[in-house]
């Protein structure tokens, strides 16, 4: 901001009144062979993504000088705290926003000269567009349609400790150069959005004036997101040190969702199958409840159990749970094959097990889905990057924040067939991939024993299977597109070629005989490629007497 004051721009808000206006935005808190091991952090923070959001108006000269004096130490801290695995961004603001550097790997050599070149000028008086500059960084906003120069389009990595470091001496004013209750609410909303993305906002308030409410707004950024707050004198002394303190804010917590009953949070692990998480279930009522299949057209609840602590950190952890669904089957790619169900409000997880319920409204048919639960926390980032187009199963095995639940309860009557879908996908986005369809019976045999299992491949997959020689074990064709599972602990159809981006649905039909009455069975249907498990469904069969 500029050094001249503009009393006509100020509004008679006290901190209490302004926070009452923002309170409406506060979240409600409800009670196979393992792939390559994910690299372990070699530093306090592990991978580190930082966006510096700096006020460069006229009154910020002394603070900018102090930051430049500490720039060597700041650069060293970024490298040391991240183990030299970092991305930096630089956004400045007056009454508009300028993206000077987008998030990019190992770009200290770009960012430090740009910070050194900053000059304090202009601003048109208090307030400034700090809330919109934070918006740009947190929400990766382009310049189009905004008083903004440059796009902020870099990727915040899911496995990184993520930070926005805001330095200013002014109220937030949006783009209209006037501070109102709406601007304070907007600042809090940006803090909530940052928290929901696991981004800490650390706020450095340079006290070049004593206008009421600025400190409270800056503190709210920090308390809402788990960042740090610091106030410097008007001469900017300590601004650089405050940034150094923010970069040290890497306290680790470790909440995990079990992939299997024996899961202790170690990731990756060799437990299989990895797609039958006991900590994810669907209920027709809020918990406590027993799991069931989702009821079509009704409001259901996806209930996720969070366990604290895991092996990677300790202490109460704050974050939220996101849940998604896809057609039940294998080879689901992240995120394109998943549809969001919703997310929980912010929740603090103490030691022990905590259940979180996410409403699932208007469940679509047919009511048979794979579910994915993801824990998002600023102090507990993923340990393995979830890249666009990546294999969901690999992400799940390498991140204890993720769990996959593909369990389908099937109620049978002797002699009455029941059909459920199973979808095959391609784990490689750019090439056709031959895969296998496996049928595993870990307990009492159903197929070839007390019941019959037939899979209808559909015309496309049936023709491709014929073209590949109809290779398989424990299977026999029983129609133009149908194949019966003849028994054994594991049967397999081999060489089912899936084209890039294909998701092909098969139909699996279970028919019980009188011999199955009153007995429970498990049949696991899964997709694999070579030695890689691509995901599957555990069908839990029970037969009426």
Describe the structure concisely for a colleague.
This protein is an alpha+beta fold and 545 residues long.
What does this structure look like?
The protein is α+β, with helices and mostly antiparallel strands and 545 residues long. It is 19% helix and 33% strand. The protein contains ten helices and 28 strands. It has helices spanning 15-22, 61-69, 71-82, 108-116, 130-138, 181-196, 214-225, 239-247, 392-398, 458-467, and strands at residues 48-55, 86-93, 97-105, 148-149, 161-168, 199-206, 229-232, 280-283, 300-308, 317-327, 333-334, 339-343, 347-349, 352-360, 369-376, 390-391, 402-405, 407-412, 418-425, 433-440, 451-456, 472-473, 475-477, 482-485, 490-498, 503-512, 520-529, 532-543. A seven-stranded mixed beta sheet has the order 4-3-2-1-5-6-7, sandwiched between helices. The longest helix has 16 residues, at 181-196. The radius of gyration is 27 Å and the shape is elongated. It starts with 14 loop residues before the first helix and ends with a strand. 49% of the residues are buried. Residues 1-41 have low confidence and may be disordered.
